[in-house]
Amino acid sequence: MKAVVFAYHEIGYVCLEELINFGAHILCLFTHEDDPGEEIWYRRPAALAGKHGIPIYTPDTLNEPEWRKLIADMNPDVLFSFYYRKMIPAEVLDIPRVGAFNLHGSLLPKFRGRCPVNWVLIEGETQTGLTLHSMVEKPDAGDIIARRALDIAFDDTAYTLFMKMAQEARILIREVLPSIADGSFAGTPQTVLGPSSYFGGRKPEDGLISWEKDAVAVYNLTRAITHPYPGAFTYLDGKKLFIWKAYPEDGSWDREPGAIVSTKPLLVNTGKGGLKLLRVQWEGEDEADGDTFAAAHELDNKILGGTT
Questions:
Q1: What share of the chain in percent tops pLDDT 70?
Q2: Domain 2-199, CATH class in plain words
Q3: What is d(CA 191, CA 47) in angstroms, rounded to the nearest whole number?
Q4: What phi and psi, each to the nearest 5 degrees, are found at residue 12?
Q5: Does the first or last residue of the chain, that is N or C, have fewer Cβ atoms within 10 Å of its Cβ?
Q6: Which CATH number fits domain 206-296: 3.40.50.300, 3.40.47.10, 3.50.30.10, 3.10.25.10?
Q7: Which of 260, 265, 288 is nearest to 276 (CA)?
Q8: Which residues have C-beta within 8 Å of that of residue 271, sequence separation ≥ 6?
Q9: How do residues 147-186 score in pLDDT, each as one tens digit?
Q10: Residue 55 and residue 242: Cα distance in Å, rounded?
Q11: Where are the domains of the chain?
Q12: Mean pLDDT score, 92-107
């Protein structure tokens, strides 16, 4: 089985590794140059490809005719996309003899689009998974070849969930490769699996906390974008206060949302319930435990929130 692979991130690494272990003839790897503004906490497929002598390409766009010609001249059987961040043109998807397949980080047709690991946590989902599907011009819309589900724990963060998903991605690819290699795989239209949902990309500024929401919703945001992501934040005395770890607490306080109702433990009122701040970082300071931070600052009668 001759394969052209488009891959990035930890899931891209483990899937490329499974292809190598399977004995696929990997013609080349398309991947990304690292973004200097992004924390690189994951293994990169390029490092693995380099060890195995696989040609590596990092184009800014795939729309140039030279890339279609390069791939067509290789005469691949299959094309795989594992967490590759750029759109692959339809003219390229039509090249492989058997088909083009993408691994998406949700149980399609739910959570199509960008950042599914973060979004399932923000939305309070208790289950997610991975889907290998045929690639068509419309993103994340092709027939499903295989899915693998996993449960989301209440204390999962984006990092812990992503690493669980990487383990499941390895198993899914290992199990499905034989049927792709011999052509016995079957596709299931997404329309028979229920309604779809779509979520867009996220920016650091999307981490602003709305204290009017209930404590669980705010907690879900904090765990969805904590390290290694940019973090959930609020404002204290006009400066950003990042909340890296928190936990919801039952209770009712006669204070407005965002009001600090206790400094030991450091507890903030929300639209329903309270949020215990366990790890925080005030702009210009080091990260600290919530209680340590509270002891070092005068927080009585303070209200968190605002935009500046």
A1: 99
A2: alpha beta
A3: 38
A4: -60, -40
A5: C
A6: 3.10.25.10
A7: 265
A8: 211, 212, 213, 214, 257
A9: 999 999 999 999 999 999 999 999 999 999 999 999 999 9
A10: 42
A11: 2-199, 206-296
A12: 97
Average pLDDT over residues 57-61: 95
How confident is the model over 186-220, as pLDDT tens digits?
999 998 888 889 999 999 999 999 999 999 999 99
**How many residues in total does the chain contain?**
308
Mean pLDDT of 109-117: 94
